[in-house]
Design a protein that fits this description.
The complex is a heterodimer of chains A (about 525) and B (about 190). With about 525 residues, chain A is mostly helical. Chain A has helices at about 1-10, 20-40, 45-65, 85-105, 125-130, 140-155, 160-180, 185-215, 220-230, 235-255, 260-270, 270-295, 300-325, 330-350, 355-380, 395-400, 400-415, 420-435, 440-465, 480-500, 500-515; strands spanning about 75, 80, 380-385, 385, 475. Chain A is globular. Chain B has about 190 residues and is mostly helical. The N and C termini of chain B lie far apart (about 65 Å). The chains are: A mainly alpha (about 525), B mainly alpha (about 190).
Chain lengths: ~525, ~190
């Protein structure tokens, strides 16, 4: 009788493919291990435990991702799609997170980017005490790992609900991390509040879009939405409204115009290692999710969304490039440059072909590593008040520290898309895909705004090399092993993808060949 | 028109009426209490649609927790409890316009999308706790588990932003080389 009862009440367990979820599980495991470290390791030893744990864990997650190569499967009861493009994007995110973690782990008391005691009010005795004591808020590590875990799930989510949960998991820790800068704390807290409020709005739009799409398709699985789209006849009000709202949520995360207004403030206010993380990993994850939603769920109605994406791509490229010219702060300038680059990547997305997919993937890798490298250089140029971010302070840097200025100039040239850098290869790939996809006018706008963008990149180079140094100008901190490694990786990838791009292009093409799993 | 339709219409009218009273009443506490009526009527509508689980969650969380939190907030901040005239903001016309526009958009879309729709409630009905549980812990198990990570991350974030460092007595003077051994404001 007992066994009969058991048999009646036995729940059929869900089928979870743990191997295919391994990258995410490892990163989430790292986050929880980080929480335990916070709880049980003495304060002074925490940084020393966190940093190796994070780096080794991320390396393990990268290996787990590589081992999945060739998988084309929907895992975890249909919640997660594991396929070529997703694995490529996840691998990129993990690699970029690894390099960003090198910057986050920079822990010499005078150069740490993170606040000593987040709960203390700026400018009080309390804050000064914790600064003098050399405290650092080490909760940064688990929070970063939570965000990275969310970023891994975001492009892999095979239904809109999982995607929303992933969006929240990646956003929430980032809101907190943005407010943890060690210097200029009010600016940092303002950035965090702005990001949080606007992010909450965009999440609400995304959720509203999900509800509308569910009303149309009767399901939130992307594959069933695709089916409903292809069989739809007549009334598409709910579908169009839902897609527009979903698009708003996704375009906000990658900072496309007109959903970009948070980006300069947040990039400027956030601690620079976190800006590097957001500028690379978050953008990659958001593009991954956008690609999946547009290609899998709404591929059947590309004639409806393509005109709008054209408009957004043009606006994003033009406004990003033009407004960047007027910026006087290095981090704000890089933020506008990141907006312009989001526009360039969108041209690859619009191509909506396997070629467009592979060129987008390649561009994301190239742009991500250059961004992390550039922000690593930004952390090195310092004066007594912390990082010297104002452009006028960078005058004559090339005379005093030719190596650092030269590397930064190299990154800027890569952003501008000069040949022999990864930026050129990436731009060439997305523009070629867009031309093949019949978007030639878009490419013309893209090339013109690249030319505008090149102007302000070159202007920074001119300021660094051809103007006289300030007598009280910033000094360049000697890079420690960690920051040095981050810069070196950035330079190496930017150079290799520029000079010898074929292996990476082939890898992206292979990953994109199978398209997304349905 | 079936009896269920009549009851549904009635509940809708109660929800709408009490919601209007929430924003028009001149007493803060009354607004919170009218909110209870609104949420309660909504929960009853869910019950009528056989979504029993959602209905009780609505009662537990919105009526039970959110409104109580509101009342506690009013009580603890010593906000004026009687009639108060200063509750209307100058933005009132704008707010009314935005609310009316949102409502018009929603009603249009829902009517356009579902005018002809007819949902069979089924037997057993679709919203029972059993079915809800089965779908949360089978189909949606991964997002459900990831949600717990979200809550954990939010918890850590809140702690990071708000927790003061608590020093064991006696440790602060020798470990923290400051001019003043005991800084004010710490606690």
């Amino acid at each position: 009788m007992n066994s009969q009862l058991l048999a009646q009440s036995a729940v059929q367990a869900p089928h979870i493919e743990y191997g295919q979820l391994a990258p995410m599980l490892i990163v989430f495991g790292l986050a929880i291990a980080g929480v335990l470290v916070e709880a049980f390791v003495p304060r002074r030893a925490r940084s020393a435990v966190h940093a190796p744990l994070t780096l080794v864990g991320l390396a393990a997650a990268f290996v787990a991702t590589v081992l999945q190569a060739g998988t084309h499967h929907v895992a975890a009861e249909g919640a997660v799609g594991v396929d070529g493009p997703t694995l490529f994007i996840q691998g990129t995110i993990i690699a970029l997170a690894f390099v960003s973690s090198l910057l986050i782990a920079e822990r010499r008391p005078d150069t740490s980017a993170f606040v000593s005691d987040a709960a203390s009010v700026p400018g009080t005795q309390e804050e000064r005490e914790s600064l003098v004591a050399g405290d650092v808020q080490t909760e940064v590590y688990p929070l970063t790992m939570f965000a990275v875990g969310g970023m891994l799930l975001f492009p892999a989510a095979n239904d809109l609900l999982t995607m929303f949960v992933a969006l929240e998991v990646l956003s929430l820790p980032l809101y907190v991390l943005c407010g943890l800068a060690r210097r200029r704390r009010l600016l940092s807290q303002e950035a965090a509040v702005k990001y949080f409020l606007l992010g909450a709005f965009s999440s609400a739009f995304f959720l509203y879009g999900i509800a509308m799409v569910y009303g149309f398709a009767g399901s939130i699985r992307l594959s069933e939405i695709a089916l409903a789209v292809s069989h739809s006849g007549g009334n598409e009000t709910l579908l169009l409204l839902g897609l527009a709202l979903l698009g708003m949520g996704l375009l906000f995360k990658l900072g496309a115009v007109p959903f970009h207004s948070w980006k300069p403030d947040v990039y400027q206010g956030a601690p620079t290692p976190i800006t590097a993380l957001m500028g690379s990993c978050t953008v990659v994850a958001a593009f991954g999710a956008l690609l999946r939603v547009l290609y899998v769920g709404f591929g059947g109605m590309q004639w409806d969304w393509r005109p709008f994406m054209w408009g957004i791509a043009i606006l994003t490229m033009v406004i990003g490039a033009i407004v960047a010219i007027t910026q006087a702060d290095v981090k704000r300038m890089l933020a506008y440059s990141s907006i312009a680059h989001a526009g360039f990547v969108l041209t690859g997305v619009i191509a909506s072909s396997s070629q467009g997919l592979s060129s987008t993937l390649f561009y994301l890798v190239a742009y991500g590593f250059t961004t992390v490298g550039a922000f690593a250089i930004v952390t090195l140029v310092r004066d007594a008040a912390g990082e010297a971010n104002h452009l006028s302070r960078w005058a004559g840097l090339g005379r005093r520290s030719p190596l650092v200025a030269g590397i930064f100039a190299f990154f800027l040239l890569a952003f501008a898309g000069i040949p022999l850098t990864s930026g050129f290869t990436g731009k060439f790939a997305v523009f070629a895909a867009a031309v093949a996809g019949g978007a030639t006018p878009l490419v013309i706008v893209g090339v013109l705004s690249s030319a505008v963008a090149a102007f302000f990149y070159v202007r920074v180079i001119v300021v660094m090399f051809f103007s006289d140094p300030n007598p009280d100008g910033p000094t360049v901190a000697a890079p420690s092993l960690l920051t040095g490694a981050a810069v070196a990786v950035g330079v190496a990838v930017t150079l290799v993808l520029g000079v010898l791009p074929q292996p990476a292009l082939d890898l992206a093409a292979n990953a994109a060949a199978g398209l997304f799993v349905r | 028109m079936t009896p269920a339709d009549v009851v549904f219409l009635f509940l809708g009218a109660v929800t709408l009426g009490s919601a209007v009273l929430v924003v028009t009443t001149r007493q803060l506490v009354h607004a919170a209490l009218w909110l209870v009526v609104t949420f309660g009527a909504l929960a009853a509508s869910y019950l009528l649609l056989t979504a029993e689980f959602v209905a009780w969650v609505q009662v537990l969380i919105y009526v039970g927790a959110v409104v109580v939190l509101l009342l506690f907030g009013i009580m603890l901040t010593r906000a004026p409890i009687g009639r108060s005239e200063g509750l209307d903001s100058a933005n009132r016309p704008v707010a009314i316009a935005v609310a009316a526009a949102t409502a018009a958009l929603l009603v249009t879309v829902v009517v356009a999308g579902f005018r002809e729709a007819y949902v069979e409630l089924g037997d057993p009905p679709a919203g029972t706790s059993g079915q809800m549980g089965a779908s949360i812990f089978r189909t949606w198990v991964l997002p459900f588990e990831v949600l717990s990570l979200l809550l954990l991350a939010a918890l850590i974030g809140a702690i990071v932003l708000s927790r003061r460092e608590i020093q064991p007595p006696g440790e602060s003077s020798d470990e923290r080389p400051t001019e003043r051994p005991t800084g004010p404001g710490r606690g």
